[in-house]
User: What shape does this take?
Amino acid sequence: MLGGVASGSLLMPSGAFSELLAWGERVRASMPSNGGPDSGSLPGATLLTPPRARAMEAMADVIIPETDTPGAAEAGVTEFVAALVDGWLDDDHRDRFLAGLDTVDPTARDRFGADFADCTGEQRDELVGEFDAELTRQREDPDARASRYFFHDVKRFTITAYFTSEAGLDAIGHRTTYRTYEGCVPLSPREARP
Assistant: This one.
């Protein structure tokens, strides 16, 4: 269900897009109010530590950069991922994702001498391209489980967070639709009389 977000109603069964949006709202509702995209910090007690959050945000910005539409950072992707990590993922999935995320900065330091978020745009693009190429290789390998590779989740979480956010929905021109229209219905039994 997470892969068809951007195309919404064109590719998803009726109601699936609405279900995805509702789930995104539930995740956002579970985020503590301290922190958030405008505060510059994540909520206090989160497993997405500041170094992990910086790496996640920098990768998300490579996946969905700011152009003439808001980028991933403006859509609050990192805060959304923090909510997923803190309360929505099962222990094994969370631990596997965080362990993979913990490899990003050491990989960047080995290659470029800086944490991932401090690398140049070209260096970040190069590393994300390599992570993506590895994910593609794993998807093509019948013995591998690509969904166990952390970058699978980085992409999935980024896209889901973005396209269930107000900024992401605005970027694709999504308009809120209502299931029913009840026009001029009587407000009371008295108004229903002729």
The radius of gyration is 20 Å. The first helix runs from residue 16 to 29.
